[in-house]
Amino acid sequence: MRLKSGQCLCCGRSTALTFHHLIPKKLHRRAYFRKNFDKPQLNQGVNICRACHDGIHDLYDEMQLAKQFSTPEKLMADEALQKHFAWVAKKK
Where are the domains of the chain? Predict the structure, then answer.
């Protein structure tokens, strides 16, 4: 479910939210992803703030995101992302 505002899953701030596809849409047509994931899995995502969303895409390319961070738990467990989310949490 996409929310326009609420609490960011990553930093915990209450703010406007964006929808982050756990498997980037750009990769949905590739054979590997069509073979290994069904349509609901490909469309899974999380509602996060713009600062966290930008940080995720700055740190990792789309293939890394799709293969290494295809669940919210994997996304939240990454050390580099945790540092970014902690930094964002201190912002207004």
Answer: 5-89
Helix/strand/coil (H, E, C) string of 55-66? Answer: HHHHHCCHHHHH
* Residue recorded with tokens 């990792």: 60
Angle, helix 50-59 to helix 79-89, in steps of 10 degrees: 150
H/E segment holding residue 20: strand 18-21
Q: What is the dihedral of CA 32, 34, 35, 37, to 10 degrees?
A: 100
Write out pLDDT tens, residues 57-77.
999 999 999 999 999 999 999
Please state whether the predicted TM-score (pTM) of the whole model is above 0.85: yes
User: Nearest-5° angle of CA 36, CA 43, CA 34?
Assistant: 25
